[in-house]
Design brief:
Elements: H1 2-14, E1 21-26, H2 32-46, E2 51-55, E3 68-70, E4 75-76, H3 78-85
Parallel strand pairs: 1-2
Antiparallel strand pairs: 3-4
Helix pairs in contact: 2-3
Length: 88
Amino acid sequence: MPRIWDTLWAHLARLQIAPVVVGEFGGRAMGSDATLQLSLTSFMASRSIAGGFYWSLNPESADTGGLIDAWGSMAGNPTKLDIVSRLP
């Protein structure tokens, strides 16, 4: 995936053509989905790409769950917080 990401959009940051913000990434963060998210955030960090929007913040997102597990406590999902903490 890193070669594909570089070809499609990361070269813009690497060559200082334009700033890059990853428009949407995230998911359940289990199994291969977690592996992909870790790979993406590690790739972004290695290229100093700090901008991105994690999907989703809200806990009631039926297909992905949220970065926050519960509104009342504002408890964050530890796995997802670990993934986004890798960004600069």
